[in-house]
Amino acid sequence: MFAEATGVPALPYDISGRLRVQDDGFRLTGINGSLGTTGVSGEGLLVPEEMIAGSWFDVAVRGAKLEELVESISDLEVRPGPFELQGKVVFRGDLVELSKVRLDRAAGDARLDLTIGIDTTQQYLDFDVAANGLDLRSFLRGTGSFEAFEQPFSITARGNLRGPHWTFDELDAAIGDATVIAAGDLEFEDARAVTEFEFALNIPSLASLGKIDGRRFQDQAFSVAAHVSGGDGLLTAEKLDVRIGDSDMHGKVVVRKGDIPEIDIDVHSDRLVFRPLLEDAEPVAEPEFEDGRLIPDIAMPVEALRKLNGSLNIDVGELQRRALFLKDIELDARLENGRLDVSKARFKARSGELLARAAYDASADTGTASLDIVARSLALGLLQTNLDHLMNSDVDIALRTTGNDLRSMAGNMDGVVYVDTRGGRFESNEYIKAIYGDMLEETLNTINPFRKTDDYTDFECIIVPLSVADGMVTGAPSIFASTDKIRFVIQGSVDLKSEKIRIGVRSTPRKIVSFSAAELINPYLQVVGTLSSPELAVDETGVLITGGAAVATAGLSLLAKGLWDRLSKSGDACKQMSEQALKELEGRLPALVIGDPAAQE
Prior knowledge:
Layout: E1 13-22, E2 25-35, E3 38-46, E4 56-63, H1 66-71, E5 76-77, E6 83-92, E7 95-105, E8 108-117, E9 124-133, E10 142-143, E11 146-148, E12 153-162, E13 165-175, E14 178-187, E15 195-203, E16 210-212, E17 215-216, E18 222-231, E19 234-244, E20 247-256, E21 262-273, H2 302-306, E22 309-321, E23 324-336, E24 339-348, E25 351-361, E26 368-379, E27 392-402, H3 406-411, E28 414-422, E29 425-426, H4 430-436, H5 439-447, E30 457-469, E31 472-475, E32 479-483, E33 486-495, E34 500-509, H6 515-519, E35 524-530, E36 534-538, E37 544-546, E38 549-551, H7 556-561, H8 563-569, H9 573-584
Parallel strand pairs: 21-22
Antiparallel strand pairs: 1-2, 2-3, 3-4, 4-6, 5-10, 6-7, 7-8, 8-9, 9-12, 10-11, 11-16, 12-13, 13-14, 14-15, 15-18, 16-17, 18-19, 19-20, 20-21, 22-23, 23-24, 24-25, 25-26, 26-27, 27-28, 28-30, 29-30, 30-31, 30-32, 31-33, 32-33, 33-34, 34-35, 35-36, 37-38
């Protein structure tokens, strides 16, 4: 009977006692028995009134396996072993009182007094909790993916809840060296309520807390402090101070109540140093494209954007993640009536600067989006994939699209992309490998056979001019790359609607090489298939093969007769390709100008 009841342990039971009928109800005495391996005893009074008002029960349980009792009703994990639990429950109409509840274990004890309102018109709760001991795991070994470490602890919490109004007379907790202190009132619905709340969390070392999915936290400090006040329709978190490791953030958050709530966030930081919260994970397995598509059909949060207004202002002096270094970071964004505007996003790097604007308008049935990015002499620094500090890029991106999910937005895209990168020493690209696995290695090694023997590839330049029309991406006129040993000109198309690709590559060594090495270079080749499953088609005679059948060489023949001949004779092929690309994209590049205050407003 009890096995299917909510909140009742699914354990065998054997309980007996005496029942006496009295004027005020059914008196229970001498209750003794077992629930699983746990012994149960107690007494009480059951009053046959509405909501059993006037009933009370005094219960004590003792057992050798607390885990058996907890596992049968909860996902919480506790330390296995003996325990004693006792307390009294009193039913007072629309209130239930738990008093003098006490849990004793070898490494800790806890007490609880709790009054719960069962009136559905308003939430009602009074609580007074205290617990301490030598090992937190006496009460909480873990929950879900989290596993706590053995640490002394103490917790004191006292307050109440009336409707949406929380009052904390005292909240003082310590786990090892970590502490939480809070006091005051919080109100989440009544805009007229006046509240004050102080909160401070300090964790000297996250590594001391425990593990998530078997991985320890990195050894770094974490702290949060804030003063929260409410009144006149506002909930304001002032003096917000967040620190993690060597990073600091401080600022202000304001929440305005209304039919459409509004949240304004203003955050400043002198320095952000990003370190992973957890120890290194296992290598990521090659993903599987379940529907054969690389671009996901993730929906844009259209409804959420329509139900919230707000602003975000971020100002960061320095940001560092491993060797990546950025400074003077600014971000200004506004969400209003379903339209998200990022009016300014800018930062400086080890050299150069980037400026961007973006928008997504969800006010109509179909969303519209835009993105403009300009960067000059941008050098982000030593990334995992690039070993050359001197690598820098000029970037111009202007894209427009419509849609309510990422896949349709990609398929409806119009605009231009221009990237001119000079220098760069690259090892194997782990990011691309995470998407395509080893199947891309064969393609890259065929395009550039020197990758097989060289530890890295030195680039003179990479010129990427692209035109996008209704989701069709083509070269404008061609992608060009030049390494210290080989040059490439790439033409073709990528259809973002179907994700079909057809890319032709013409390559030739820059210098006279040995006959055996020259044999390995395929001057004509083609990559076909889809973004999620590219395939290599190549024939050393210049005829491209795919699926066992010869296909046309598309623009490669033109390259061979025209542009390629000019590039082969050019003293500075990188400059020539850059000038030709800019001429073809003239009038279509973004209007943003770095250093122009008017362009940054």
